[in-house]
Amino acid sequence: MAPLRVAVIIGSTREGRVGDGVGHWFARQAAQRDDLEPAVVDLAGFDFPVRYPDRPTAPMRDFAAQVGRADAFVVVTPEYNRSFPASLKQAIDYAYDEWHTKPVAFVSYGHGSRGLYAVEQLRSVFTELHTVTLRNGVSVDLLAESPEDRVAGVTPMLDQLRWWGLALREARALRPYAS
User: Fold this and answer.
1) Measuring CA to CA, which residue among 106, 102, 131 is closest to residue 120?
2) How many helices (H) and strands (E) does the chain have?
3) Which of 55, 63, 84, 164 could staple 118 via S-S, CB 3.0–4.6 A?
4) 73 vs 54, 113, 146, 162, CA distance in Å?
5) What are the tens digits of pLDDT across the range 28-62?
6) Contact assessment for residue 119 and residue 108, using Cβ atoms and an 8 Å cutoff
């Protein structure tokens, strides 16, 4: 069976962000497994337009294609003002059908709440996109711990992501999804 293709999406584009470190740390954890094929999708590497254009730009099409190729997602998000960053919402909206019937897990970080308010809001967004969001996640309080302190949460989350990812990949192959 082919490994599950997992897009690890780094949602922060701020200068001085810690999201790239958290995202790459998580991708290294996932890469230790033979049943997963993680690929980092860093939003800071895309030259997205400031306004939503009449026609998709090349970076928008590239992002949507990467979402389309993935079997599953891990969204790495900070929490800003009890929510997730606008850069992440903008990118999410550049794909639609490409998200359908795929599982989404979350790695969040912040101060105190560990980014869980951002995850709570992202669950609503991804439900609207016909995904399955996972119960287990990894969350880091940047004032009290490092991502390495949360490594115990990685395996249960990846086990769930693999189960849902394989089940939904098989279902999509047997029966096209119509929304």
Assistant:
1) 106
2) 5, 6
3) 84
4) 27, 22, 22, 10
5) 999 999 999 999 999 999 999 999 999 999 999 99
6) yes
Report which of 76, 75, 1 is spatially closest to residue 37, judged by C-alpha positions. Answer: 1
Encoding tokens for residue 146?
A: 């490092």
106: left (phi over 0), alpha (psi -120 to 50) or beta: beta
The owner of tokens 């939503």 is: 52
Smallest Cα–Cα separation from 15: which of 47, 41, 44? 44
Query: CA distances (Å), 41 to each of 17, 113, 168, in order?
Result: 15, 25, 21
Alpha-carbon gap, residue 142 to 111, rounded angstroms: 6
Hey, what are 106's tokens? 């979350």
Q: For residues 141 and 69, give the distance between their C-alpha atoms in angstroms, rounded to a whole number.
A: 32
Contact call for residues 108 and 79 (beta carbons, < 8 A): yes
Q: Which helix (H) or strand (E) holds 36?
A: strand 36-42
Q: For the chain, which residues score pLDDT lower than 70? A: none
Number of Cα atoms under 13 Å in the Cβ half of residue 6: 35
Report which of 104, 107, 119 is spatially closest to residue 147, judged by C-alpha positions.
Answer: 107
